[in-house]
Amino acid sequence: MEHRFEREKGPGTLLLLHSTGGDENQLIPVGRMLDPDANLLSPRGQVEEAGARRFFRRLGEGVFDLDDLREKTLELAGFLEATEFEYDLDPARLFAVGYSNGANIGFSLLLARPNLLAGAVLLRPMLPYAAQSTAGLNGKQVLVLSGQADPSIPPGQVDELEKALRQRGATVEVSWQPAGHALGAADYAAAREWLQARP
Q1: Across-strand partners of 40?
Q2: Most buried of 4, 51, 104, 165 (most Cβ within 10 A)?
């Protein structure tokens, strides 16, 4: 899988998962802002939609191809497993940071292969599917940053996503930002503070 990796002096790693239309470079500046000492691992989504890169297909606006999501989640898990070995990364110090489409597959990855991550920062996520995985998330930590005026996310989706994570034992913090779907300084500040508080 095409990706960008930047090694730094800290023990932690951020898995950067871009939004629709982004690529492996999109969130590198964000990762640097969130943790200047963290290694950055940023893969490129393998799906193209009208020339825009995504991590999995959708059938329409807000309607996901769930079979493709499951397939691409397993592919991303295989990539992460291989790169953790190749770059000698500690999964106990690895947090996914996903935005929009990247947040959705980050949620799916956490449910499917929780052993590969310490947790996740989910920026503007939707609930991609009614989570049926029984994989335990005890010890996993998740920050959800949602926009109060986000037109892309149906009402109640964030509550359902939080519930799905908590039911599996994850520790979840939800922060509502006075914003829409776009990210701003308050999002970055909240994510940075949350990550700095992780052991």
Answers
A1: 6, 14
A2: 104
pTM over 0.85? The answer is yes
Q: Are 141 and 192 in contact (CB under 8 A)?
A: no
| pLDDT tens digits for range 40-88 | 999 999 999 889 999 998 877 767 888 999 999 999 999 999 999 999 9
Contact 12, 38 (CB under 8 A): yes
Task: Return d(Cα 8, Cα 34) in angstroms, integer.
Answer: 13
Q: How far is CA 199 from each of CA 92, 129, 151, rounded to the nearest angstrom?
A: 10, 31, 35
- For 147-177, the pLDDT digits (tens) are 999 998 887 899 999 999 998 999 999 999 9
Query: Active-site residue among 23, 133, 175, 181?
Result: 181
CA proximity to 198, closest of 79, 41, 81, 90? 90
Q: Compute the chain's Rg from CA coordinates.
A: 15
Closest CA to 164 of 131, 141, 134: 131
Beta bridge partners of 123: 99, 145
**Active-site residue flag, 181:** yes
Q: Which amino acid does the sequence have at 143?
A: L
Beta strand ranges found along 150-190 (DSSP E): 171-177
**Is 150 among the residues known to form the active site?**
yes
Q: Kindly give the pairing relationship between strand 3-6 and strand 63-64.
A: unpaired
Which entry of 19, 42, 100, 108 is annotated as an active-site residue? 100
